[in-house]
Amino acid sequence: AGSGRVGDALALARRVLAAFDPARLWAHAPAFNAILVRELVRLDALHPAPDLRAWCTAYLDRAWTQARDPASGLLTVGGIGRYDDGVVLDHAALVGAMAVLADVVV
After folding, report:
1. pTM, rounded to two decimals
2. Residue pLDDT, tens place only, 37-83
3. Phi, psi of 68, rounded to the nearest 5 degrees
4. For a Cys-Cys bond, which of 24, 60, 87, 90 suits 30, CB 3.0-4.6 Å?
């Protein structure tokens, strides 16, 4: 898994992945999940860890297929968590995380 700080970061990341099973992650506010996704992708870029990228991809794929409102295109339906009563913060965070995962500079 690596040594030193990278190894510690990978170990911590894997503990987070274990704690946030798909149901818990889905219910959690996307604005915060997106921060986690961005940092996991950065860690994967530093030290390739397919399990980190797979976890991020699974969450964002689910957001795209299950949370996208067909009428508005916003990522707000399907029981996905919410930060507050608005939609912009969570939607923008998810789109930003998708861009980072797709290796688009944001």
Report:
1. 0.90
2. 999 999 999 999 999 999 999 999 999 999 999 999 999 999 999 99
3. -75, 120
4. 90
Angle between helices 88-101 and 50-66 (to 10 degrees): 140
Q: How far is CA 95 from CA 6, 24, 56, in A?
A: 27, 20, 13
Distance spanning both ends of the chain, measured CA to CA: 28
Amino acid at 33: N
CB atoms inside a 10 Å sphere around CB 44: 20
CA quadruple 94, 9, 104, 57: dihedral sign: negative
Q: What is the DSSP string of 70-86?
A: TTT--B--TT---SSS-
CA 42 from chain center: how many Å? 12
